[in-house]
Amino acid sequence: MLRSCSKRRLFSAAFATPAPGVSFNFAAKCIKGKDLLIFVANRPAHDTLMRYKTRWAIESLFGDIKTRGLNPEGTRLTDSKKLEVLFALVALATGWASATASAVVCTAKIKRKGHGYKAKSLFRTGFDYLRRVLRTQPGDAIKPWCKINSRMRRVV
Q: Distance between CA 5 and CA 36 in Å, rounded?
């Protein structure tokens, strides 16, 4: 049934085990015409693909912040007050990197890999740019931050 999948395919199935009467919804999406990405959920199948897309964006952001970026786990802090300050700084740095990425992407495109996905996330693009520019031209690194600050003043 999945071999004839052109772009995406939705279907439901019920199994005798582990619990009789429990049904699952499947969503399959073709990637590059030959690979399948299959999702299983207990919710309607058409929602599954959209939920996964949203969830994947959040997972990518956490991965960027944690292991491919700021690495807050490496501090080994346990004091709750110090953790609050650390995560406030992580949130500010993430916003700064994201604003910087928006400015960088407006002037240059992010390279894509052979499979069509971006080589770097927006966060990582901004983070790498900030690291490079803070060493050589700190004034240029401040410009995206000033835009965030001016937007916040208009909101408040």
A: 9
The per-residue pLDDT for range 140-152, each reduced to its tens digit, is 888 888 877 665 5
CA trace torsion 3, 39, 29, 123 (10° rounding): -150
Q: Both ends of the chain: CA-CA distance in Å?
A: 55
Amino acid, res. 24: F
Percent residues over pLDDT 90 in the chain = 6
CA neighbor of 125 nearest in space, from 68, 87, 48, 77: 68
Distance of alpha carbon 60 from alpha carbon 22, whole angstroms: 31
Three-point CA angle 80, 92, 141, nearest 5°? 145
DSSP one-letter string for 82-141: HHHHHHHHHHHHHHHHHHHHHHHHHHSPPPB-TTSSBSS-HHHHHHHHHHHHHHH-HHHH
β-strand pairing of 35-41 with 8-14: unpaired
- pLDDT of 60 reads 80
Distance CA 54, CA 58 (A): 7
